Fold this sequence. Notes:
The chain has helices at residues 3-13, 67-70, 73-81, 102-111, 166-171, 202-217, 223-238, 246-258, 263-276; strands at residues 18-22, 26-27, 84-87, 94-99, 116-119, 124-129, 135-139, 142-145, 151-152, 162-163. Strands 4, 5, 6, 7, 8 and 10 form a 6-stranded mixed β-sheet that branches. The chain contains 9 helices and 10 strands.
Amino acid sequence: MNTHLETALELAAATVPVLPLRAGKLPFGNCSACAGNACGGRPNMKAAGPCQCPRPCHGWAAANTDSDVLQSPAWASAWQQAQAVAYHPGGAGLTVVDLDNADAIAWARESLPATRAVPTTRGEHWIYRGAMQSANAVRPGIDIKSTMAYARWLGPGTGTMTDLPDAVRALAVKEPSTVLPAPLAITVPTGAGGGHCRHRMPSYLERGIAMAEQRITEARSGVHTIVYRTFLAVLSAHGRCGCLTDTHVARLFTAAQAKGESPRHCTDAWSNARTALGM
């Protein structure tokens, strides 16, 4: 049996989702059924989740623990060509802090709790128990690989694995942008019938905006999608009666930017939500 497949089966038996990597530490290409990452890749957040395709069609979403799938004829060619085994840390409830050089390792030793460490070609993987959103370049030479990401399997490593600390979670939280969104004119039709608008009650509108801010702030992954859906919900509830002001919109944009969204992403998400509602 192929040694990479043997390793993959051992990891899968330990409930660690795995996938083969080709030369260059890259996953195998998309299959026709999953062109455009239709079953869960990052470009299509609507279907994010485990891959349902019978072959290793793309990165992290193809990772699985089903030994029958791993040994199926559809996967045979991939394992024959595989140069390494990768795993989906988030799917195993883990987070990998990828330290790419000596300076990054030195910083981690001073700033992060000790945990299991795995040597890499240029640095180390520090593995913590617990999943979080993945993020690249959180510091010079440091990436975080957890949900919607894959990491190369380089052995079990040494040391005792510890729980994911807040210090690591904080690395993925970007500072709020100092660029404030441009004022947006809310050009949507007012309520029909001339009756009293319940949305103009300060408590009703304030509660809705506060809940929307909270939903964005508490997002752990899929921030793009959560921001869009939150904007959609706010516009659906408050967008047609003229209650929303530039101040309300700015609050939502500020919450989204605090999660790493750019002003342009905020504007696009708002515009797409209005278009979806026919505004």
